[in-house]
Amino acid sequence: MDLLYKIFIDPFVQMGAAPDLLVQTIWEGLVAGVLYSLIALGFVLIFKASGVFNFAQGIMVVFAALTLVGLTEKGVPAYLALVLTIGVMFLLAVGIERIVLRPLVNQPDIILFMATFGLTYFLIGLGEMIFGGSPKQMVTAELGLPRGAVDVNMLGGMVSFQKIDIAAALLASVAVAALAVFFQKTRIGRALRAVADSHKAALSVGISLNQIWVIVWFTAGIVALATGIMWGARSEVSFALEIIALKALPVLILGGLTSIPGAIVGGLIIGIGEKLGEFYWGPLVGGGIESWLAYFIALGVLMIRPEGLFGDKIIERI
Fold it and tell me: What transmembrane ranges does the database entry give (predicted)?
């Protein structure tokens, strides 16, 4: 009975006794969840346009952030380095389309998936060769990103909102909204959806797969850069960020591989859920819930709804 009380009752008693701590925990989970959503959007963009699950999206986050920081270390002004990094991500998109995707058109999905594995380790090696393997500090001040915190008295206590977290949440929200409009309202967005439905049908109406793939990989690269800047500003820029980026996988499973709203909702559920789990239930198992809870939630969703909460249900007729 004592164990059941600690699991099912005591955490909620703690929430009611210290609502300010509950708000603080939810806020930190919200920020993490929004950034998870931003990473997941990179996966969704590429999968919707090409049917390829891009395992390299995580290392693209790291590579973009390292490029930005590396250029500033060479004396390039921060905003010029930002523009040059965007150019690097465009060249990377062109290179991936020419060298990886174009020769593998109409190959089985598993072949394309394995190609993104190879791309992952290529970018890891290239990044370590050019920038080294030591962690680096994001150029937060040079980019004009806010520092410090805003402390608010509420619910009988003090809740602290880091300014960089507020900026990250706003940037991610704007990016998510812009991508949603881009997919639904623009000609290129409609072309991307057409390519996702059928490559052959898209080619038959004059849509260039090569151009579409460059656009979508470049867009995913911009998303990766924005994510790398914000995650790097909250911690540091290192190859450990790739592990954080892989938290997008349970977000995708939860929300659905082809759904932009699913990426948003899934990210928020995972971010808030793991923070609440770590703070209130973590002491029961000695901590560390935050490292595995997201995958546990994703496994539960797979067993009930394999296509995710917002994914398209696949119906095969025999």
Answer: 21-46, 52-71, 78-99, 111-131, 164-183, 212-232, 244-273, 279-304
